[in-house]
Specification:
heterodimer; A: alpha+beta; 8-stranded mixed beta sheet; 11 helices; globular; B: Elongation Factor Tu (Ef-tu), domain 3; Rossmann fold; 7-stranded mixed beta sheet
């Protein structure tokens, strides 16, 4: 279904979703646009990109993966060691993400696919994706990956001169509209595609081959690494960076929680093994690994990249490194060789 | 098994088999293939990666060999019979047993690298006639650091054992030197052999160079790599070697396949 709705209907749909699902949204609260648990803030259409992506809510930092008691008398709070962890149990809950830009909606699907062999994250069918027309900024480069068409949504919201428009992209989205009494109007809205002033559309295969050829681009990577601070800000804001580390959280009642916390592959001891042997001792090694994972390993595994061109990494980089330009340089060099 | 499913296991016996290295006999069933690994946790402290080192055919018992070298493993070495360990796994691929049948097997172990090879030795001994010559080459720091000495001596008639020590004073049945020396000197049936290697990161390139110099092909060499395992289930991304994840695709890789990925 695709139809126009009025402000009242939009509010009703959002209220319905927040009642039926555990809802996270891009919302304006106290003048700031943030992504977080839905608190009846103002839903903005078009939606600007928030600094913090959905991943920090899909997997809160230090989320428990297992609970075990070292108290011989058992758990004083009556929690059972054999019961699934709170996270695993909560995976049957239904979640809604409102106000994801198209690139984030695609990223969410890819993120879930990376964890699909585990029971750590909820399944896609338990998540309602309400994407929104995006507010393009100077850092966006999603069209370079061919993401100019709006995809991967259950519901999509946009505005034009006729008002708000809603599109359903799945049975779940259709159901939400039906339950809220939304009916088709005579006038049908058209899904707005994304247009960016991006000169380069990447050839995934060539880009991946170029990035895999470390000896050929050794000097190039060294030059980038010389400018990189190694702070990991790019990996913290990237919706498709999911490096984690195992941590232990201890309670005063002698309970102990085995947790996975967010980590960054830019961290100095990230690849350290026994006897303090660091297998990626230089910043250039860690920087290259970041690109290699996203554009080589992911391509070899799934013929797709772990990047949707949201541009958060460019915006967050204190050294003003531009990932789009870095990728373009690699691809241009690769083309020259193949010509 | 791709989840954090810990099971509680009771320690039955503990023995210090080398300085700061303890062999734990643990009660419980752990179905593993030689070369696979488990994650063992000490609640409140952390978890570490270990390869079970016992006979995989043992039904109600398995063994872990633990060297105290960090906060978690040092705490583990304080555990006593009757204490519990939380273990999840096994994970990883294990040694390519099917590809070893009818072949001469050269095992190259550096120090604790002998541990993941021990279950395979049990497996081979049970079906000794299915394999060709077995040559176990080990490198240890001192005579005290040699692992499973007595047990290996029992097998000595059926396999050829060459142990080299970094530090050796006086006369001994062992030789002074590095593991690369026997790889250079010993007679091998190059065409019929498979090499299985496990040891410190620094040992591997020297051994490979020596072996390739003797005419072995890269595809005859299998290496068990040690990498940092945070999850063991292909999520955390700490253990990758280029395009491969050691916890999912490894820890054992054929050298011709892993070679282009080393250093990435």
């Amino acid at each position: 279904m695709k139809t126009y709705i009025n402000k009242h209907q939009l509010d009703q749909i959002i209220a319905y979703i927040s009642h039926e699902f555990e809802t996270f949204a891009t919302q304006k609260i106290d003048g700031k646009v943030v992504f977080g648990k839905y608190k009846k803030g103002l839903i903005l259409i078009p939606t600007p990109k928030t600094v913090i992506p959905f991943k920090k809510f899909l997997w809160p930092d230090g989320q428990e993966v297992a609970l075990y008691s070292s108290n011989p008398e058992g758990d004083p709070l009556g929690r059972s060691e054999k019961s699934p962890s709170s996270r695993q149990a909560s995976n049957n809950k239904k979640y809604a993400f409102i106000g994801l830009t198209n690139c984030d909606a695609i990223a969410l699907e890819k993120f879930l696919a990376e964890f699909s062999h585990t029971n750590l994250l909820p399944k896609r069918e338990n998540i309602l994706i309400v994407s929104s027309e995006c507010k393009i900024d100077e850092f966006c480069f999603c069209t370079a990956f061919g993401h100019d068409k709006i995809t991967n949504f259950d519901l999509h919201l946009q505005t034009d001169q006729n008002g708000h428009a809603v599109f359903s992209g799945s049975k779940n989205g259709e159901k939400v509209l039906r339950e809220n009494g939304v009916k088709s109007h005579m006038k049908k809205p058209d899904l707005k595609n994304i247009t960016l002033n991006i000169p380069n559309i990447f050839n995934k295969k060539e880009l991946s081959l170029g990035l895999d050829d470390l000896p050929r681009f050794k000097d190039f990577w060294q030059k980038i690494a010389n400018n990189c601070f190694g702070c990991g800000a790019c990996s913290a804001v990237c919706p498709l960076c999911f490096c984690t580390k195992h941590t232990e959280k201890n309670d005063l009642d002698s309970q102990n929680h085995s947790c996975l916390s967010w980590d960054s592959c830019f961290a100095e001891n990230f690849s350290q093994i026994q006897n303090h042997l660091d297998l990626r001792p230089e910043r250039v090694n860690r920087l290259y690994n970041w690109y290699h994972h996203k554009f080589v390993r992911a391509y070899l595994d799934k013929k797709d990249f772990l990047c949707t061109g949201c541009g958060r990494c460019i915006k967050a980089c204190p050294a003003h490194l531009n990932q789009y330009k870095i990728l373009s340089s690699i691809e241009n060099q690769e083309e020259k060789v193949n010509e | 098994m791709n989840n954090f499913d810990y099971r509680n296991y009771e320690i039955l016996a503990k023995e210090e088999i080398a300085p700061t290295i303890f062999l734990y006999k643990i009660s419980g069933k752990l179905q593993f293939r030689p070369g696979q690994f488990v994650q063992a946790a000490v609640p409140h402290i952390g978890e570490s990666t270990f390869a079970p080192c016992s006979d995989p055919a043992q039904k109600n018992l398995f063994e872990l060999c633990i060297r105290g070298c960090g906060s978690t493993t040092n705490m583990m070495t304080k555990l006593l019979p009757g204490d519990n360990l939380k273990i999840r796994g096994p994970y990883g691929n294990g040694w390519p047993i099917d590809k070893l049948k009818g072949k001469d097997i050269i095992m190259v172990a550096g120090g604790m690298g002998l541990i993941p090879l021990r279950p395979l030795l049990y497996e081979i001994m049970r079906n000794r006639d299915k394999y060709g010559c077995i040559h176990l080459i080990g490198g240890f720091r001192t005579i005290e650091h040699i692992l499973f000495k007595d047990e290996l001596a029992k097998w000595g008639k059926q396999i050829s054992i060459d142990f080299y020590l970094e530090n050796l004073i006086g006369r001994s049945i062992y030789k002074k030197g590095l593991v690369t020396e026997p790889l250079q000197k010993e007679k091998f049936n190059v065409a019929k052999s498979v090499i299985l290697m496990c040891g410190p990161e620094v040992m591997v390139p020297f051994c490979i160079e020596t072996l390739l110099g003797r005419g072995f092909e890269e595809k005859q060499i299998y290496i068990s790599y040690e990498r940092r395992m945070e999850c063991g289930i292909g999520v955390c991304q700490h253990c990758n070697i280029g395009r491969y994840l050691t916890c999912q695709d490894g820890p054992i890789f054929r050298y011709d396949q892993i070679k282009p990925e080393i250093g990435k």
